[in-house]
Amino acid sequence: MQNIKNLIDDLHLEDLKNESHPSIFDENEEYDMLIVRIPIISNELSAKSLGFIISKEQSYFYDTQKNEFEELNGRYEGPYKVLDKLTDRMLKSFVKYQDAVADMEELLYVDKIKNDFMNTWLGLKLEILRIERILLKTSNTVNELMEFYAETENFPINHYVDLHEHLDRTMRSATLQLSKLDYLYSFYNAKSNDKMNRMIYLLTIISAVFLPLNLVVGFFGMNTSGLPFADGKFGTYNAIMIMVSLVIITSSVVYFWRKRVET
Q1: What is the pLDDT of residues 22-38, one digit of tens each?
Q2: Domain limits of the chain?
């Protein structure tokens, strides 16, 4: 094991130690280096970078916790088995995001929008975008590896094609969920704007009804002489009757105008 560690270039060793290193496949004369970054979907989204060295005879997995290389069973099968296990787990765990988007969609359709809709939407958007970005690089890296070893004897091309398909399927699903989130955001804005327009429309009608009353109140509130009903016994009663009449007339005009517009 010490021999393989001495064989690795110092810069490559630093890359293998980096737990947040992006996916990369690097060909060399003595060995090839493969780093694959996989999203880890649990209660909180994270990502894990797995480093492999593929020599001419064997393959090795670099354990970042122990800071040492672990010999794998099979030059090509070893990395595949490690990656396939994590990829399958990721593919199954991604259902969490599909269900969350579906729940948001259902709430919007039945008009039961939660107050924290935007926070939930933004959280899902950021996490799924991160998954898509990671998987795009990872999928391309695995594709590079397959093209490089395609003509190599004993290379299990079908296994790596299956691995690539799982990565690609999760990435396509992430892209689909992002499209749904964009649609839900547009739909949410449309519903919010519709509610706002209705509120403004209602306020406009109320303003139209009470505008004549404001004029009457302002008129009779002037501190001048010679105002109507100022000296009469029923001045206040007459003023109230005028205001009630104006409310009825204005409301009738608004009502018939609305009926005419709607028809």
Answers
A1: 999 999 888 999 999 99
A2: 2-195, 197-262
